[in-house]
Amino acid sequence: MWKDLAVYIIRCSGPGTRVVEVGAGRFLYVSDYIRKHSKVDLVLTDIKPSHGGIVRDDITSPRMELYMGAAVIYSIRPPAEIHSSLMRVADAVGARLIIKPLTGEDIVTERKMKLVNYGRTYFYEYIPKSAAGEKIP
Prior knowledge:
Elements: H1 2-11, E1 18-22, H2 29-37, E2 41-46, E3 54-56, E4 70-76, H3 83-93, E5 96-100, E6 114-118, E7 121-126
Parallel strand pairs: 1-2, 1-4, 2-3, 4-5
Antiparallel strand pairs: 5-7, 6-7
């Protein structure tokens, strides 16, 4: 299931493109797979980094330089109170946004996100108009 999410993210990115995980925490299966199987510029952020390799950032008051040039911004099981902030940052930088919620959790954003079933996983995706011309796997 987590491998399928990682594969989708890789397919939405190209070598050297930036991918940002928001709220990396301690669950690193997806980011580890992305690192091992692609050449993307992967940036992991969290408001309280749990270990090295994660950059401190608060998505509700983001350091935009971390997100500039990102092809994909994704978050796994983010709390509902940051969903809108994720969308605002994705809009600002023209990045595809992927949110993998907890089972049964609703997505709380200003604009509708598309439910995507990919392999053995599902997630919500938002593509800003500035990124709409990109290839969708």
